[in-house]
Amino acid sequence: MRTSGAASERGGDLAGRLRSAQRVTVLTGAGVSAESGVPTFRGKDGLWRDRRVHELATPRALLEEPDLAWEWYHWRRGLVNLAAPNSAHYALARIQDEVPSFCLLTQNVDGLHSRAGSRNVVELHGNIHRARCEGCGCVVPLAGEQGVPRCSTCGSAMRPDVVLFGESLDEGVVRTAVSAAAECDVFLVVGTSGVVYPAAALPGIARESGAFVAVVNAEPTPLSEVADESFVGLCGEVLPALVAQAWGP
Ligand code: BJW
Ligand code: ZN
After folding, report:
1. What is the mean pLDDT of residues 243-249?
2. pLDDT tens string 66-112
3. Which ligand is nearest to the CA of 156?
4. DSSP assignment of 145-192, as one string?
5. CA 185, CA 23: separation in Å to the nearest integer?
6. Pocket test residue of 1, 109, 165, 178 for ligand 1, highest count of atoms within 8 A of CB
7. Mutation test of ligand 1: which of 79, 132, 196 has the most ligand atoms closer than 8 Å to its C-beta?
8. What is the pTM of this model?
9. CA-to-CA distance for 92 and 28, rounded, in angstroms?
């Protein structure tokens, strides 16, 4: 289903706008990886052993229940390692190849965009394949670890190298994201519930700066209100169709 945003008098035609755009910025969320079999955070998927993401993805969970928190991350990393990028990841990689200037901002920590061939992916919330030492701050890749990993340099407990609720995003990453939102012609939002800040503020920044904002999501979200055009559907179907419409098969 496709609707043009109530806020807009600029009409739709996302494919045409993509074709003529100089700069395109995309913001993705967990919905992009859903068709690869990676669970999303909210809705019926958003529980793990009766725990909600608001309980698990917090510094408090890591501090008070490190074994449980790490078990969740090890389980998710295992799923991601078995998963493959889907047609939505590949469609976004193709857009990068077709437009003069492109920036992919993702809230996802799974690394699937890079595996699909996207370059210079800006990971707003970190990456699940890395751990960071609570003592010396060093960052290491994770492989088949179990339990709470320990730093081989200083012996401290390590934590997933991701951004938890209440923690600040990397300043440089935020600067890059805000510029990419403010300086694009088309801002495309894909597969996110649009409720977690500061990522959820980026479409508004883009629109205020004059970009055409489009949302592709399985259900309407608060960001559909900001959008000039909104597609309700699976991104693994909508995005390849859009790309084919813009540039051919
Ligand atoms: C499909 C589909 C298919 C499914 N096709 N679609 C300003 C206002 C209000 C609150 C705040 C604010 N500023 C800060 C806050 C506090 C907080 C926040 O935003 N809270 C809100 C919940 C109210 N933000 C923070 O704490 C951030 N830090 C910060 O701002 O620091 C400064 C500060 C601190 C404290 C106070 C004030 C300022 C940090 C946020 C970090 C979020 N971390 C997580 C975990 C990352 C690590 C991990 O993965 O374990 O990031 S939480 C989780 O949510 C994860 C995601 O990246 C993020 C967003 O989720 P996403 O991607 O949108 O997934 P879902 O599941 O919610 O949605 C999927 C969508 O896809 C659904 O709509 C489906 O329908 C759809 N879908 N299949 C298309 N096939
Ligand atoms: Zn250390």
Report:
1. 95
2. 999 999 999 999 999 999 999 999 999 999 999 999 999 999 999 99
3. 2
4. --SS-B-TTT--BEEEEEPPTTPPPPHHHHHHHHHHHHT-SEEEEES-
5. 5
6. 165
7. 196
8. 0.96
9. 10
* Any atom of ligand 1 within 6 Å of the Cβ of 31: yes
Rounded to whole angstroms, how far apart are CA atoms 203 and 224? 10
Ligand nearest to C-alpha 153: 2
Q: How far is the CA of 164 from the centre of ligand 2 (A)?
A: 20
- Helix (H) / strand (E) element for 105: namely strand 101-106
Spatial separation of the C-alpha atoms in residues 68 and 167, rounded to whole Å: 20
Q: In what order do the strands lie in the sheet with 2-4?
A: 2-4, 229-232, 212-217, 186-190, 23-28, 101-106, 122-123
Taking CA atoms only, the protein residue closest to ligand 1 atom 57 is 107
CB of residue 35 inside a 6 A radius of ligand 1: yes
- Determine the 3-state secondary structure of 216 from DSSP: strand
Are 68 and 61 in contact by the 8 Å Cβ rule? The answer is: yes
Determine whether the shortest distance from the Cβ of 167 to ligand 1 is under 6 A: yes
pLDDT at 22 over 50: yes
Q: Say what the pLDDT of residue 144 is.
A: 83
185 within 8 A of 211, measured Cβ to Cβ: yes
Q: What pLDDT score does 50 carry? A: 77
Query: How far are the Cα atoms of 57, 73, 109, 152, 169 from residue 62, in angstroms, in the given order?
Result: 8, 11, 17, 20, 18
Rounded to whole angstroms, how far apart are CA atoms 154 and 138?
10
